[in-house]
Amino acid sequence: MPVVRTRVGEPTNTPQRLHDCDIKSGIKSKHKNMDDQRSTSDMECTSTYLPPEEEEGNVEYKLKLLNPTACRIEHLITQMKWRLQEGQGEAIYKIGVEDNGLCSGLPDEEMEETLSTLQQMADRLGADLSVLRKREVDCPALGKRKTIAEVLVRKVLDRHQVLDLRVSVLGNADAGKSTLLGVLTQGQLDNGHGEARLNLFRHLHEIQSGRTSCISHEILGFDSRGEVVNYSESRTAEEICENASKLVTFIDLAGHHKYLRTTVFGLTSHFPDFAMLVISANRGIVGTTREHLGFALALNVPTFAVVTKSDLCPPPVADRTCKQLERLLTSPGSAKIPFRVTTIDDAITVGQMMTGEKSNVVPIFQVSSVTGQNLELLKKFLNVLPPQRNAREQAKLMVKPSEFQIDQVFAVPDVGPVVAGSLLRGTVKENEGLMIGPTTAGKFLPVNVTSIRRNRAPCRAARAGQIASLSLEGVEKDDIRKGMVLISNDVALESFAAFEATICLLYHPGKNLQKGFQTTVHVGSVCRTAIIEKIHNDEGSLSTNKQATVTFRFVTSPEYIRLGSTLLFRERATKGIGQITKLFSYNCEEPNLATSRRKVSTTNSPPASPSSIPQQPRTFPI
Questions:
Q1: Any idea what the Cα angle at residue 450 is, between residues 444 and 452, rounded to 5°?
Q2: Percentage of the chain exceeding pLDDT 90
């Protein structure tokens, strides 16, 4: 709960401005000498302000709830039910706070009675509540000790729709990403030699080298009271999903530069709610750290940083790494606000700000997977992280026709082909008929969904925004590839050979990017080679940090993409980002892919002498 203290007699600003100033002042002070500041502030009479209460959202202000009538109780229960729906099963109650944001506070007796009333309301709805924190707002020296409280109310609205947040784990190789995830999900500290990460590896060469080379998923649960649910108490993923009311799915990505394509694919295809940037305290910002951070910022993914291995270096070295990270985050290219988290109060405050326009704050945690230093702060932060979509946005997505993007394909014995990916829109149920495509010929094939699994547990349906795996009937595994979609029959089934996009060239080692440049394009789960066919400006070329409308044409096969989608393209050191503004349909009768056009041009043109061949811009093979 952001708090701003103003001495008696000093003018006060608007609540919103005070709220912003609290975060900025906290960042400047870095929360050094916190105990000294609190001991001196206890001697001052203070007033506290929060932003005014909003009609929508999952945050509710209540001054006090003392002896409410039966009619009033029913109204309050209806109000709590609305707030829970807005937060997809989570609501934050701030007790002792007026609707305009003034924190008046309550005496201890009134606070206990208000919390008791709140508990009765939660019991009627089958929800649980836990007090996140309490804080004094008045001067004890004058005998006016009053407190405000922040309460988390949590309820599983639907057992098949547990609140699930996706967190992509980024960072350089050997930063301790997999070890940190192993400690969080297994509930046991590391032995200093990477024992905690062994359960996360999927291949023998990963165990031998200690480096992640593919995308893996790990889950961490929280029950309705905010307690951690992981493999230390639950033997299987099914038990975690059954006992948890909130799940955090970590998407562990590769850190080595040779696996950069896999990392970018994981960022674009899994649509993470948050990104966790892991940095080694003893090595600092090295390798792919800057590149991974740049991709997360380019995709507008709210980011928080974790500085690991603080047990391997003295405090000045770890502090130097944090300062290096702060300089990177505050640079003109990032324009973020770093915030070092040192107390539980900090973790709760900044966790609730990780959404919407306030996501420009980047919390920084300094932890150790061996000693357990500050791991509780990180867990508290993950517990209060809000969903990125509210209930109305989620409901709108669920009523749309189904669209499931495929990013992994398996062949399971006695089951058949299995696809994994993200459901972007609509719902998918067992025994439902869908269309899969496009094939290399631009066609869509009918299939039937025989079973569904989420978080390694069977379920009857998957809903918009969820990651799931589906077993299919009516198609062979060899006919399925990454980047395909499962889509409803009642939508236009169309594939596209080319598209226009408004792009910004982030970096290009050459002088200018020109027509004919071949690059890898990432659009959701689509990861395909494309050629720049035309740059729509007077120069016909594009330099670093410049914008233009560019036409891309796929080289080998048509793809299913949508208008307005965000794209990333890269080729070695060249990187860019943009948004699709126009689509060009694939013509199966007259193939209009780049390879087809090259074949037609070669067939119809006479051989050219070496002196007559025009100079082409430099391109790089994939």
A1: 100
A2: 57
Rounded-to-5 percentages of helix, strand, coil across the chain = 30, 30, 40
Report the 10 Å Cβ neighbour count for 504.
Answer: 16
Say if residues 499 and 529 touch (Cβ distance below 8 Å). no
Tell me, letter by letter, the H, E, C secondary structure of 125-160: HCCEEEEEEEEECCCHHHCCCCEEEEEEEECCCCCC
Where do the CATH 3.40.50.300 domains begin and end in the chain? 163-391
Distance from C-alpha of 186 to C-alpha of 5, rounded to nearest angstrom? 41
Q: Which amino acid is at 232?
A: S
Indicate the CATH number for domain 399-487.
Answer: 2.40.30.10
Backbone dihedral region for residue 563 (phi beyond 0: left; psi -120 to 50: alpha; all else: beta): beta
**pLDDT tens-place string over residues 99-116:** 999 988 999 999 999 999
Domain 496-612 top-level CATH class: mainly beta
Q: Where in the chain is the domain with CATH 2.40.30.10?
A: 399-487, 496-612
Please give the backbone phi and psi of residue 551, each rounded to the nearest 5 degrees, phi first: -100, 125
Q: Which whole number is the average pLDDT over 299-322?
A: 94
> Which two structure tokens, joined as six digits, stand for 307?
């500085």
Nearest CA-CA partner of 526 in 554, 505, 550, 551: 554
Residues 6+ apart with CB under 8 A from 181: 169, 197, 200, 218, 250, 252
- The answer, yes or no, to whether residue 267 has pLDDT greater than 50, is yes
Closest residue by Cα to residue 447 from 405, 486, 412? 486
In 3D space, the residue among 389, 381, 350, 382 whose CA is nearest the CA of residue 86 turns out to be 389
Q: Which of 516, 496, 469, 451 is nearest to 587 (CA)?
A: 496
Residue 278's CB: how many other CB atoms inside 10 A?
A: 25
Alpha carbons 456 and 148: distance in angstroms, whole number: 42
Please name every residue paired with 246 in a beta bridge, in sequence order, or none if there are none. Answer: 163, 222
Angle between helices 108-125 and 70-86 (to 10 degrees): 70
CA angle 159, 164, 165 (to 5 degrees): 170
